[in-house]
Specification:
three-stranded antiparallel sheet, alpha+beta
């Protein structure tokens, strides 16, 4: 062996004739690197986003070479965000190694849960009122208009006045007519009563006694007075 083979270079084997001294050579192939037990050393740990590195060292010459280690999977932790009245819910997944995150598993917003409402401004005849509703979950409020009530005079004033005027006129006319009728009747009765004593007096000049004639005259006078009194009372009403 005139040149020893190494891990990377070929060697030379020389043969010489022992009689004449003639010689020739042969190539000895390179031995190649020896990895010993075959285990390398991890010189760079792989992550979720980057490859790692495995280093191997030749047991003969000490030369090294490396091989890549594939990236590892993410290790995610899940955090659930519940939906609200107005916002969707979702789940956030975060890698505990590298911090990479994404969201998924969305759920719809819940919508408001309104209470029965409170009158925060009462309606008047000319202005609308306000009814306020409050969400029992998030406290958000919403309002609705309460229509104005309108004027009560528009509904009852003119009609009632007209009815009152008509009733008053009818009552006045009825009282006037009744009074006229009563007055006429009383006048006729008084006239008849006044005239009857004369007739009676004429009648009693015959055979009737003066006492009986006087009694009849007083009775007729009383009837006339009563009729006049009734007429005055009816007229006063």
């Amino acid at each position: 062996v005139t040149t020893a083979a190494t891990c990377t270079e070929a060697g030379v084997m020389t043969y010489t004739c022992t009689v004449c001294g003639d010689a020739y050579t042969e190539v000895i192939p390179a031995t190649g690197h020896s990895q010993g037990d075959g285990d390398g050393t991890v010189t760079k740990e792989p992550t979720c986003t980057e490859e790692g590195e495995m280093t191997y060292t030749c047991a003969v010459c000490g030369e090294t070479y490396t091989e890549a280690i594939s990236v590892i999977d993410h290790i995610y932790e899940a955090v659930v965000t519940a939906p609200t009245c107005t916002e969707k819910g979702y789940t956030t997944y975060t890698c505990t190694v590298c911090g990479d995150s994404y969201t998924a598993d969305e759920t719809e917003a819940l919508g408001h849960t309104w209470d029965s409402g409170v009158v925060t401004k009462a309606a008047t005849e000319t202005e609308d009122g306000v009814m306020t509703y409050t969400c029992t979950v998030c406290g958000e409020t919403s309002t609705e208009s309460i229509p104005a009530m309108g004027s009560t005079e528009d509904n009852t004033g003119d009609g009632n006045t007209e009815d009152e005027d008509t009733t008053e006129n009818n009552t006045t006319e009825d009282n006037t007519a009744e009074a006229d009728t009563t007055e006429g009747t009383a006048t006729e009765t008084a006239t008849e009563a006044a005239s009857e004593p004369v007739a009676v007096e004429s009648a009693v000049t015959g055979d009737d006694s003066p006492a009986e004639a006087m009694a009849v005259t007083l009775l007729l006078a009383a009837v006339g007075i009563a009729a006049l009194t009734l007429m005055k009372k009816r007229t006063a009403c």
